[in-house]
Amino acid sequence: MDAQAAVKTIRVAVCGAKGKMGQEVVKTVLNDAELKLAGVVDPHGLGESVNDFFGTAQEPGMQFDQDLKALLAREKPDVCVDFTNPDVVYPNTMAMIEAGCRPVIGTTGLTPEQLQEIDNALKSRGLGGMVVPNFAIGAVLMMKFAQEAARYFDHAEIIELHHNRKADAPSGTALKTAELMRQSQSTFGPTNSPEKEVIAGARGATDPANIHIHSVRLPGYIAHQEVIFGGPGQILTIRHDSMDRACFMPGVALSAKKVMQLQGLVYGLEHIL
Ligand SMILES: NC(=O)c1ccc[n+]([C@@H]2O[C@H](COP(=O)([O-])OP(=O)(O)OC[C@H]3O[C@@H](n4cnc5c(N)ncnc54)[C@H](O)[C@@H]3O)[C@@H](O)[C@H]2O)c1
Predict the structure, then answer these.
(1) Of 128, 153, 156, 218, whose CB has the highest number of CB atoms within 10 Å?
(2) What SS3 class is residue 240?
């Protein structure tokens, strides 16, 4: 057997495969020699031919499934990538783990308690899993730089801007950014004047360290965020823009490969780069 044949192909299922992100993930898997498409799930695609929908000849006979559990039991994928919605991502993730499949979760909206449950379930089965609020390398760097800047600035606010089909607010990226900034400083805005909101919500949501988070939802945006730091006589703005969903795909492919070597939950792409 030559060295190339000895490399095991990772069988990847995609949940939410007809969605904006899911479609990109399927194309990424089809074009990656180390990954093999094991199946696709989406309630909007039941029975539809994968080859026809994605304009490929690579998967003759493969159809969209509607039931994730049925796909997991039938195909036993190594990894399942989920880009669905906040209402279904937790049961989906637990179903993957129960079936012995490693979750790679891009869907946002999981609570800290759910993340803990996922970690427990993964560890009890000796499996790895990843939950990644943002797969774009530029966004990961934005968070890292914001964490660093938070050591030097006492005042900071986050504005995240997304398309108007996004279900959850604030975004998972904004929550993760605030969490990282809290590791650098415990309270922001200490010298702000007392505030009275004339319209409730005018100052956005407030995280435990008093970082105000503002969510904008407009058609035309994909995923954008700026972290604004203020100090006497200066403003530092750290901004990331996702102009095309292609920016997330190298991170998804890397996660699908690295998760095979993990034990327990890894939260955030930065831990595997
Ligand atoms: N982590 C990241 O880098 C990143 C990047 C972009 C978007 N997101 C998140 O990914 C999620 C999906 O985003 P999108 O823009 O692709 O949404 P979308 O609405 O275009 O797609 C979601 C798809 O999931 C399908 N779906 C719903 N319930 C399902 C279920 N139970 N089983 C299987 N499929 C199901 C829907 O039919 C739909 O096709 C959102 O939570 C979004 O915030 C994360």
Answers:
(1) 156
(2) strand
Q: What is the pLDDT of residue 140?
A: 95
The domain limits of the chain are: 3-131+246-271, 137-242
Using most ligand atoms within 8 A of CB, pick from 83, 88, 266 the residue to mutate for ligand 1. Answer: 83
What is the reported pLDDT for 6? 57
Residue 180 is encoded by which pair of tokens?
A: 């990282």
Q: Check if the beta carbon of residue 14 is closer than 8 Å to that of residue 29.
A: yes
Give the Cα separation of 16 and 71 in Å (integer).
13
Mean pLDDT in runs of 10 for the chain (273 residues)?
64 97 98 98 91 96 96 98 97 98 96 97 98 95 97 98 95 95 96 94 97 98 97 98 95 98 96 92
Residue 64 near ligand 1, beta carbon < 6 Å? no
As given in the structure block, the two tokens for residue 188 are 């922001």
What's the CATH code, domain 137-242? 3.30.360.10
Are 212 and 203 contacting, i.e. CB atoms less than 8 angstroms apart?
A: yes
Amino acid, res. 143:
M
What is the structure's pLDDT at 245? 94
